[in-house]
Design brief:
By secondary structure, the chain is mainly alpha-helical. It is 57% helix and 3% strand. It contains nine helices and two strands. The chain has helices spanning 16-28, 45-55, 61-65, 89-97, 104-112, 119-122, 129-144, 146-149, 154-193, and strands at 6-8, 34-36. Strands 1-2 form a two-stranded parallel sheet. Strand 1, helix 1 and strand 2 (34-36) form a beta-alpha-beta unit. Helix 1 packs parallel to helix 2 (45-55), helix 2 runs parallel beside helix 4 and helix 7 packs antiparallel against helix 9 (154-193). The termini are far apart. The model has no long low-confidence stretch (mean pLDDT 81).
Length: 196
Amino acid sequence: NCQLRALNLNYNCIDDCGIIPFAEVLAKNNTLEQLFIAQGNKITNHGWDTLSRALCNIDTINDTYLSNHKVLNLGQTGHFRHQNVELPSDLESSLRLNFNSDFAPIQKILCHHHDWNMSLLIEEDLRFLPIILRWIDVGSVLNQNIAEKTSLSRRQAAALRRRNDITLKVRRNSTILQFVRSMPLIVIDKLRANGM
């Protein structure tokens, strides 16, 4: 298992096709924090989208959870202001969220998955309800410390914290409601299974 924390690939003529293998490896990597690739390469929005997907794959909640939450920097800031590379906003957002790798998966899921379908979990006889609620509660606790763990200003962090608090409360209540609504069906299924 590689323990590499920084890799400088600036000025290597990497283009959109060349970034694909890096994005594929990056999606599974949990040690690399600095990938200097933004300076002096020929990466367009298509290439940045590929890299963004490695940092936050939004296909499913599980894909988002398994995305890379470690990379903090792509070398987009040069030594001089004119060297700065402007990255797409979703990529910048994922990099900012990765400053708190404990909260990054929760925050990314909250940002990109607005409707949680609990039907698959409900079939598991409510075993997952405490786990899901605990996960949301951990998100609430981590959310309180978001200012110290991200590169956001105090004002931005406070706004994000408020938005996250509301989102977490809505998700918690929605999750409980979905499980409560399914309770009669679970009881009826158990009664039928027992021949009653």
